[in-house]
Amino acid sequence: MSSLSAKIKDAFDEPACDKNRGKDAKPRKEGCSKSLTPGAAAGGCAFDGAKIVLQPITDVAHLVHAPLACEGNSWDNRGAVSSGPTLWRTSFTTDLTELDLVMGQGERKLFKAIREIKHTYAPPAIFVYSTCVTALIGDDIEAVCKRATEKFGLAVVPINAPGLAGSKNLGNKLAAEALLDHVIGTVEPDDPGPYDINILGEFNLSGEFWLVKPLLDRLGIRVRACIPGDARYRDIASAHRARAAMMVCSTALISLARKMEERWDIPFFEGSFYGISDTSQALRNLVRLLVRKGADPEILERTETLIAQQEAIAWKKLESYRQRLQGKRVLLNTGGVKSWSVVHALMEIGIEIVGTSVKKSTVQDKERIKQVLKHDKHMFESMAARELYAMLSEHRADIMLSGGRTQFIALKAKTPWLDINQERQHPYAGYDGMVELVRQIDLAIHNPIWSQVRQPAPWDCQPDLIGELPCTRNETAYLFDEFACATAHEC
């Protein structure tokens, strides 16, 4: 079995997954994989998934070994941000041509590209991504990376996740395997401490982790590595010396958390920084794990004091929105950790959840939704565009929270919409993030534009058909004033 095939099989045979663990011996051996159908990777291929997990490592040069179009398709496809290095914002590709492929020049061109990046930018590491084209022609990126590491004296890491291998989620897992095989554990930190933690599956979208880190700083907790949001190569390389870990997005990186626990005895839990209660519970769980690993128990009392202070401040800020949003109905068309964490956060303010998508959610995610909603009748695996449109046009929801791909369904239905996925412009994590989320929902729902667009268009008023009560305003007013036909009963 090839190394890639072995990695794929290992990635799907995940003991930490309840669904796979509950199978009989033979199905469990086959893992969770299933045959792809045409168009199954439309939501993102394995290469795209690997870039999503690794590109937020900000001081690394990310080199795509492929024709130019592969890099152009995936570069900067998430709203992650950096507090320092900007090298990750530079696009690197070997830009293979038909002549390179025919003449077998791919590996030589890759080595030259690595050398050029090393001499021009001197990064601590270069990540080299395989793609469909280079996988099909058989370029051995692992051999090239090994030779480049020896030659240039820096870490050159092969990311063997070509798009044809499978879905975006598989790419997430293969990226985690690359970190385990080539990065984590390669650097020993100078100052390990009893309050070091890892945050896994946090992408720092719109800088939202920066709303949480000050809370950890006040407790004396150091984030040894946030993987991958606003990460540095050396931090990830020394992440094996953390004392505890929090898993934010288990759909993507549950295998990374489990294997780090097995190899380096780093206990982890799955939590969320969305919502007041979930943020408080995440802080409690973190300090409990640290105490279990030898930290001073006094941190438990300090944590409760901090939580009480922050919750009081947040609830005071939210009070002005409660009456305006009480009973408002929200449709969530997202997945993963947001399918349950955002549900809980919104219900805290009195908002009603009329539906939440669980298409990308794990078994654990679905169980949490059932606990929060007390039933599963509002859970849906997927909803066709026409069904979403029907639900919104019939006013069964006051607002839809989703990603950018479904925003036009809401807009066509003349329903408020708010971006909750990776392209969003506002951070929603932590106590301040919850206040910002509620503020944005309030602004969207009460925007006066919705009452205007739901009115009949001026040209739908036909004075010649309503008999004795013609419109009397001039043509300009008739076209632009919503009261142009106020004298006509039927308008």
From TrEMBL:
SUPFAM superfamilies: Helical backbone' metal receptor
Any one Gene Ontology molecular-function term assigned to this protein's record: nitrogenase activity
Domain Nitrogenase/oxidoreductase component: 45-443
Domain of life: Bacteria
Composition skew (Basic and acidic residues), residue ranges: 15-32
Cited function: This protein may play a role in the biosynthesis of the prosthetic group of nitrogenase (FeMo cofactor).
Name under which the protein is recorded: Nitrogenase iron-molybdenum cofactor biosynthesis protein NifE
Gene source species: Mesorhizobium wenxiniae
